Amino acid sequence: MLFSEVLKESSQFSSCFKKGRYIFCGFVTVYYIANGLEINRVGISVSKKVFKRAVDRNRAKRIIRAAYRLNESKFERGYDIVFAVRKDIDGKKTQDIEKILTKVIKDINVHSVKKNESD
After folding, report:
1. Would you give the distance in Å from CA 92 to the centre of its chain?
2. What is the DSSP track for 39-84?
3. 21 with 33: CB under 8 angstroms?
4. Which pLDDT does position 106 carry in this prediction?
């Protein structure tokens, strides 16, 4: 990923879940919050409650990562972004996730413009 790092710390995930904004898009909920950096930090959360088998959890993470990588340059920089996967993602392809990412990109970019106008 060119303009992104991976979120690994539990506290970073928690802050994104508690203080951030979110978009519910059917089979994935996307949480985001400004991080004050020049890069995005991306995390993917797939619970054992959603998918019991590690193979299924890893596949869900892989298709989200691939869709994000293909659309990374369209995102505003300076956000922590967490993708929380839902059960409905089973059987979806990268192209399905990309459609949802366009909605997420629009929302983050609109939020960024509003934030800049209020400064």
Report:
1. 16
2. SEEEEEE--TTT-SSHHHHHHHHHHHHHHHHHHGGGSPSSEEEEEE
3. yes
4. 83
DSSP string, 89-116: GTT--HHHHHHHHHHHHHHHHHHHHHHH
Phi first, then psi, for residue 38 (nearest 5°) are -90, 0
**Contacts for 45-53: CB closer than 8 Å, 24+ residues apart:** 45/13, 45/82, 45/83, 45/84, 45/85, 46/85, 47/85, 50/85, 50/86, 50/87, 51/85, 51/87, 51/90
Burial class of residue 4 (count of CB atoms within 10 Å of its CB; 0-12, 13-18, 19+): middle
Tell me the per-residue pLDDT of 2-19, one tens digit each, with 9 for 90 and over: 778 898 888 888 999 999
Distance between CA 87 and CA 29 in Å, rounded? Answer: 11
- Whole-number percent of the chain with pLDDT over 70: 92
The identity of residue 23, as a single letter, is I
